[in-house]
Amino acid sequence: MKAFILAAGLGTRLRPFTDTMPKAMAPVAPGLPLLEHHVRQLRLQGIRDFVINLHHLPEKITAHFGDGSRLGVRIEYSDESEQLLDTAGAIRKAAPLLGSEFVLVYADQLHFLPIAPLVAAYRESGALGALMVKRSDLPQNGDLVELAAGESRIARWHPRPHEFTGFSGNLYLNAGVYVLSSAIVEHIPAGRAVSLDREVLPGLVAAGRPLHAVAASDDILDIGTPQKLAFAQSWFAAHPSRKRRALFLDRDGVIIHALPRGEYLTDWSQSSLVNGIDTLVRTARSAGYLTVVVTNQPQISRGLLSEDGLRSIHDRMESALDRQLDAIYYCPHTDADGCDCRKPKDGMLLRGSRDLGIDLDRSILVGDSDRDVHAGTAAGCRTVFVRNAFNADEATRCSPERYVNNLSEILPLL
Questions:
Q1: Alpha-carbon distance values, 256 to 186, 283, 294 (Å)
Q2: What angle do CA 22, 28, 31 make, to 5 degrees?
Q3: Could you tell me how many helices (H) and strands (E) the chain has, helices first?
Q4: Fold of domain 2-240
Q5: CA-to-CA distance for 252 and 264, rounded, in angstroms?
Q6: Alpha-carbon distance 195 to 208, whole Å?
Q7: Which of 113, 188, 316, 405 sits a CA distance of 20 to 30 A from 92?
Q8: pTM, rounded to two decimals
Q9: Distance CA 330, CA 310 (A)
Q10: Alpha carbon distance 246, 227 (integer Å)
């Protein structure tokens, strides 16, 4: 399933920021645009294919995300630079890219909503779509849906403006997160801007076409003004999900078998998974850890491997691990480049902490070199050194919390 993120809005209330940047690129944390937060959150929930629509300053978004490979996803773009098409019009234009079903998310709302219950409700109901709904202190600020008694089916739709000032019975606020069938395009007029919430969905409900709802208790924040953005940034920094634990894993020697020092992996055929890594990854995830790869890859700077080649290797590695890795960070530099990301520096771990909301003090780094251990120590992580045939000297140059001979010895630490 793909995700379609609506990022074409002008954001006039957020000026002067939006004079030079799209609204969806407003930062919710230092170096983390809201749009990137959505991509990362959906990736953590298993979505790897994205479509983003563009209008205002589209080059700012495409330059930041490219094809998505930096974030371990694939991104395509739907260009609305000539004319804004509103939400449903955007769906109609992007339909050839979206597939038979897709998640729809507004890029200017901040939340950590789980997608799985919505996908399940959509598929079980066989409806044209399912949407997230919630209760709010300000029902007049959004479209309201009324559920049929004892059902999740939407019986009535009350678009803004309406006269409701409170909630009762089966009345809920539309949260603006959807799973939709591509068949909805048949109900979207062509050749003009069309609103999903004001025109298409109310029309479907009035015609008796099934749409279902899933109630969510999580907060959803608007970032539409400078004041609201400032509040959202504070809320984001304090959100419980920003205190996740992670199991940081070096690649060679931990996930795949190490080559002799000085030799570099340039093709997946040279590699194989280390015994026990699949169990370690599954156990860590079951215990609530994110699984994040941090790996030095100087062969890129040395011209021995292209970044496309590295992505191919990592795609094969992720496939071999049943796509259970949450993120992969790599440093393409050599020591001579003087970067901040190459281990023993802790740049990759700090970036993972920022991107994914990881509490480094509660996290563990597993590596097979003194560089790995020094990076983990610098970041404040607990550290584990995995012995192998090539690293006896390096084991004496660091002081990890624990030395292990095989990955199964790490399981009690989780």
A1: 48, 18, 13
A2: 80
A3: 12, 19
A4: Spore Coat Polysaccharide Biosynthesis Protein SpsA; Chain A (3.90.550)
A5: 10
A6: 19
A7: 113
A8: 0.70
A9: 9
A10: 33
User: pLDDT tens for residues 356-410?
Assistant: 888 898 899 999 999 999 999 999 899 999 999 999 999 999 999 999 999 999 9
Q: Where do we find the tokens 């920022």?
A: 354
**CA 83 to the chain's CA centroid:** 28
Asked if the model's pLDDT at residue 272 lies above 90, the reply is yes
Cα–Cα distance list, 268 to 162, 257, 261, 316, 382 (Å): 59, 11, 18, 7, 30
Mark whether 368 is an active-site residue. no
Backbone angles phi, psi at 205, to 5 degrees: -65, -45
User: Which regions of the chain carry the CATH code 3.90.550.10?
Assistant: 2-240
- For 27-62, what is each residue's pLDDT tens digit? 888 888 999 999 988 987 888 899 999 998 889 999
Which residue in 252, 368, 370, 372 is the catalytic one? 252
Which of 250, 326, 346, 355 is flagged as catalytic?
250
pLDDT band of residue 138 (cuts 50, 70, 90) is: low
Using an 8 Å Cβ cutoff, are 313 and 320 in contact? no
Whether domain 244-413 has CATH 3.50.30.30: the reply is: no
CA–CA gap between residue 196 and residue 345 (Å, rounded): 48
- pLDDT for res 82: 86
> What's 204-244 look like in SS3?
HHHCCCCEEEEECCCCCEECCCHHHHHHHHHHHHHCHHHHE
Q: Is 252 a catalytic residue?
A: yes
Torsion angle in degrees (nearest 10) through CA of 49, 54, 57, 60 = 0
Confidence of residue 157 (pLDDT cuts 50, 70, 90): confident
Q: Where exactly does CATH 3.40.50.1000 map onto the chain?
A: 244-413
**Residue 355's pLDDT band (cuts 50, 70, 90):** confident
